[in-house]
Amino acid sequence: MRRPYRDRDPVKLAGAGMLVLLGLVGFAIGLPQAVFYQRTTDYAVELANAAGLRPDDQVFIAGVPSGRVRTVDLAVDRVRIGLRLDHDQTLGTETTAGVKLQTILGKRYLDVQPRGGGRIPAGGTIPLARTSVPFSLDDLGRSAAKTTEELDLGALKQMISTLRANAPDANLAAQALRGVGAATSVFDKYSEQLKSLLAGAQSVTSTLVSQQDSLVALLGDTDLIATALVERKATLEKLITDLGTLSTQVRSFLDTNRPMVRPLLDRLQTVAKTLTDNKEQLGRTLDLLAPTGRYLANASGNGPWLDVVGPAGPVPDDLLCLFGVVKGCK
Predict the structure, then answer these.
(1) Distances (CA, A) of 287 to 78, 149, 274, 278
(2) H-assigned helices in 135-190
(3) Which helix (H) or strand (E) holds 11?
(4) Considering just the CA atoms, what is the radius of gyration of the chain in Å?
(5) What positions does the domain Mce/MlaD occupy (predicted)?
């Protein structure tokens, strides 16, 4: 028959419970580690310095977490980083590695970039020549110290003295600042007009862009016209020369024949004045000429004779009407 727990030794029960609890904790801690070691492979990386890298920091391949840093050890003039990567990650013989900044608080990670053919064997090392570390504060301090040592303090003092001696007048500087303030006020006052101007400029630019094909064609036509003018340059020059020669000859002709040309021009002017004075009679004549020509055409159009209607023989009708021989004349 089993004894109830209240009748058993509490010390033994506590000891057994502690052992079971420790076993569970050990199992909970050891199982993930065992799984991690079972699915990862050991590698090493040589760095110029640790650059803030610590054990358990992540290892990334192509931006994907693929392992963890296990150890950070000093090896004479370099640091040897031990890490474990997933089995399915193949590292070529030209693989590179570098320490990168993961957060603004200074947490780092190891970035591995597989490259090259072949494969680094398990436990292999990425040498120092193919690794890089970020620029650290120590490097910055050393660079600053080196730069400071190279400075020529005498020349620096002379430069400062020169700047102090050639500093602008305070009044001029104040006037310049006031001018800048006034210009700013003007821009602020006319901001709407400036916006309208810029909008108009943008509209013109958009129109030009939309019509760029037409502009290109127009420029091409202009180029053709210019080319044609250049090709016709000799012809135009000869035409101008001939016009000059003709003008000279006409002037010479007028100078030589002025005594004969002047009366001719006067007579032409007289004829023109006569025609102007008698333009009404000439107009009436032209008006009557049309029916007269029509009657003549009707009379002579039937053959080589004239058709004439003469009820009183060769006596015109007008005379017959005048003397009252024919009645009904109007």
Answers:
(1) 126, 118, 19, 14
(2) 137-150, 153-165, 170-189
(3) helix 10-38
(4) 59
(5) 40-114
CB of 85 closer than 8 Å to CB of 57: no
Q: What is the pLDDT, as a whole number, of residue 77?
A: 86
Task: Decide: 69 and 59 in contact? Cβ < 8 Å.
Answer: yes
Give the distance, in angstroms, between the CA of residue 126 and the centroid of all CA atoms in the same chain: 47
- When pLDDT is cut at 50, 70 and 90, the band that residue 60 belongs to is very high
What mean pLDDT is reported for the chain?
A: 77
Q: Which amino acid is at 12?
A: K
Contact (Cβ atoms closer than 8 angstroms) between residue 140 and residue 123: no
First to last CA, the chain: 174
Q: What are phi and psi of 46, to 5 degrees?
A: -100, 130
Amino acid present at 92: G
What are the helix (H) ranges across 257-323?
258-277, 279-300, 317-323
Amino acid at 141: G
- Which one, of 88, 77, 68, 85, lies nearest residue 124 by Cα? 85
Tokens of 315: 């006596």
SS3 (DSSP) at 57? coil
Domain ranges of the chain: 1-38, 39-137
pLDDT value, residue 268: 77
